[in-house]
Amino acid sequence: MRLGVLDIGSNTVHLLIADVIPGGRPLATTSKRTVLRLMRYLEPDGSISEEGVAALVAAVAEAREIAAVENVAELLATATSAVRDARNGEAVIARIEEALGQELQVLGGETEARYTFLAVRRWFGWSAGQILLFDIGGGSLELASGADELPEAAASVPLGAGRMTVQFLPNDPPGMDAVEQLRAHAEKVIAPAATALGSMPKPDHIVGSSKAIRSLAKLAGSPMPSWPGNERLLLPRDALGSWIPRLAKLPASARQELPGITADRTFQIVAGAVVLHTAMKMLKADALEVSPWALREGVLLRYIESMSWTGPA
């Protein structure tokens, strides 16, 4: 069966199409990303501007057309923090559903963390034991910990890379004074979640997922032993911290020339680095492993589990 997941996030509208079979891993056939950076379109009152909504609807309509051409049997459409938290969120959701021709599932922050945790657990396997997860999107930071497929503790805080860039690092380059203000804010916001997650058993694996974390790992991390066809990266906290002053002094045009920093992430990567470094420090994470699977794969896996394989192919 061919399934599609449409992830409407703060940075991108990302369509993932995969073939699934009973008992098998999803085999991706198509991945289409449209970069939006919705935080650019936020009005002072917290609503998404008409220009932003129009761009969002156009990206969704294009994804629907691709899904039809690819003969997708079921399209699982989800939206995360940018749409969820917008002041005009209900109206935006209605416009998206009209473009989709179907209902949109709007995920709460902890639900995002649970889907992502499921994907990470499946990627690492049961033998990985206790996992502590970090995931940074454009609008929020998700944290989760547990030894099963669902985390025993999960939290979502409004510290996404795009949101923090708009609020704390609007200048290019931002400079270290602004970075320290963001760090202080992040410490305050993360503190309750850090207390709750800090009481969990010591993790056997500390894992990071999301494009921002993969970009930072390519910049400041190092390869890990792996099997053919799979890239494994380790991101030490100290190495990440040493890059933050350099990133804060570079303009966005220069940052995108660095290893792993793509043009669509160059404006937000400083905020992402500061938030991740702060969270790792508060949760006593010396290094994290990067998972290639995240929210989209988690949505796909949960849907596959709910299917009846006795139905028609």
- Low-pLDDT segments, ≥5 res: none
Order of the strands making up the biggest sheet: 8-7-6-9-12-11-10
Question: What percentage of residues falls in helices of 4 or more residues?
Answer: 40-55%
Please report which band the strand proportion falls in: under 5%, 5-15%, 15-25%, 25-35%, 35-45% or over 45%: 15-25%
Helix/strand order, N-terminal first:
EEEHEHHEHEEEHHEHEEHHHEH
Overall geometry: globular
User: What structural category do the secondary elements indicate?
Assistant: alpha/beta
Protein model, in words:
By secondary structure, this protein is of the alpha/beta class. Helices cover 44% and strands 20% of the residues. The chain has eleven helices and twelve strands. The strands form two sheets. A seven-stranded mixed β-sheet has the order 8-7-6-9-12-11-10, sandwiched between helices. It is globular. The mean pLDDT is 93.
Structure summary:
With 313 residues, the chain is α/β, with parallel strands linked by helices. Helices cover 44% and strands 20% of the residues. It has helices at 50-69, 81-85, 89-100, 109-124, 161-168, 176-198, 211-220, 237-249, 252-255, 269-282, 295-306; strands spanning 2-8, 12-19, 27-35, 74-79, 105-106, 131-136, 141-146, 153-157, 205-209, 222-223, 233-236, 287-290.
